Structures are given as C-alpha cells and as structure tokens.
Amino acid sequence: MTDGVLNVVLGLIASAISAGLGWLAQTLRRRRRLERERAFFGLPDDGEALLVVNQHPASPSSKSVSRNDVYALMELAALVRGCGARATLTGHDQVRQGLGDKTEFCVGGPASNVRTAAHLASWLPGVVFVPAPAGADSPAPSLRVGAREFGLAPAAGESDGSAYALLARVHLRPGSRPVFLIAGQTSVSNHAAVRYLAAHHRGLARRHGSDGAFAVVLRVVNARAYGPDVVEFEADLTAAATARPEPVAV
Questions:
Q1: CA nearest 74: which of 194, 179, 200, 201?
Q2: How far apart are alpha carbons 248 and 250 in whole angstroms?
Q3: C-alpha angle 163/164/165, rounded to 5°?
Q4: CA nearest 166: which of 197, 205, 139, 210?
Q5: What pLDDT is stored for residue 158 in this prediction?
Q6: Of 231, 199, 205, 230, which Cα lies nearest the Cα of 217?
Q7: What is the CA radius of gyration of the chain?
Q8: Distances (CA, A) of 121 to 17, 105, 130, 150
Q9: One CATH from 3.30.1360.180, 3.30.379.10, 3.40.1110.10, 3.30.420.40 for 42-242
Q10: What percent of the chain has pLDDT over 90?
Q11: What average pLDDT score do residues 103-126 get?
Q12: Mean pLDDT, to the nearest integer, of 7-16?
C-alpha cells in the first residue's frame, strides 16, 4: 500500500470515528435533555398523564369545549407523547381519583373546571378568580394573586387587549406525580399558557428545580390580533399564591 493510499484510508477512518463520536455526543445530549424534561413533567417512559378538560363557559352543554381549549389539549397531548408517555382525556366533572399516581394537566379557570377549583382551594389558597360585575364589558373574571389583581384589558383605545393566565405546578410529594394548572381568563390565554409551558419548561426547571412548586402569571398580548402566539412572563407569585389569606376580623 502506497503512502498516498494509506493516508486516504487513515483519513477515512479518522472521519468515520469523528462522525461516530459526534453522533454519540448528540445522542447523549438528546437523551439527557429528554430525561430532564421527563423529570420536570413527572412523565417516565411509558407513563401516563391525565388531561382534565374544562367546559365552554358560554355553553349550556357539559360536553362543550372551546376551540382554543381543544387546541391547548392537543398541544399538551403532543408534549406528553414527546416524553414517551400516554395521555388520557377526561371531563372536569368526571374525575374521581386522588393525586400523585399520574401527572395531571388541568385546563381552565375554576368557573369552567371544578377540578381547578379544588386544586386552587387545596394548594393555591392565595389565588382567586373574581367574577366580572354585572354589566361589565367582558364576562371574563379578574385574576387576583395575593395583593395583586390582573384584570382583562379591553381591546380598544390605548390598551393592547391583554389577558392573563396562571401557570402553576403543585402537589409535589416524594414519589408522586405533579399537577399542572393552566388557568387563564379566556380560552386564548389557556392556549397561550400551554404554549409557554412547552417552550419554556427548561427555564422554569432551572428557576424552580425539577421538583419545585411554582405559580407564575403570564400576559397574553393583544390576543385579538395575535391569538396565543405572543405571551410574556408577568410575575412569579409563588409565595403569594401558596400563602393562605389572613381571616377577616369580625
């Protein structure tokens, strides 16, 4: 074998080894990223998640769901499937089980989802959805967390038509699966909060840990024009959300 042929063969071998090492490194990075994602969502390989569906607030039918909430559920199902787990869909008034056996994603505020109302009362007593007063321009409730209140801004005048959503992870016990609350003032803000969760879960994990509770408020900018696509972090109100309000003096 001539020196020229030997150099070519050695170059090919070196290239093959380099490509193999690069592929292996990429595979290990993807695997670590997936394991961190599974840890954050409490979704082991071949695990199961419960998607709790709310009711369309303006419909008399208990089986009616807003179109944007359907989109949110579809994206949650894709997120669960990406972790190698299975998603089970159930109505908010049909859940008859405790917490911890399965990761739970609960969509909708307490007025449209009784499961959300139960979770707020148990784990986030500092969060209140205040119904809109009679004759208000919008029937959407205000979101109050501790001393801060987030009202639905009208999409007129100088306002950008902002809406808000609460995104929270609660019921974290050793060996149990978490509950994720996606409770917006509107169905569009529910959808936006799901998108934020899917896009920013790594940042949330860095800030709160893979097994830490949190409650953050998100702002959906001009939902009438942009739908659920433009959503911004508004505030981390975990401490206020988990604190039980002081009893009112009589």
A1: 194
A2: 6
A3: 135
A4: 197
A5: 38
A6: 231
A7: 23
A8: 58, 17, 14, 19
A9: 3.30.379.10
A10: 45
A11: 93
A12: 63
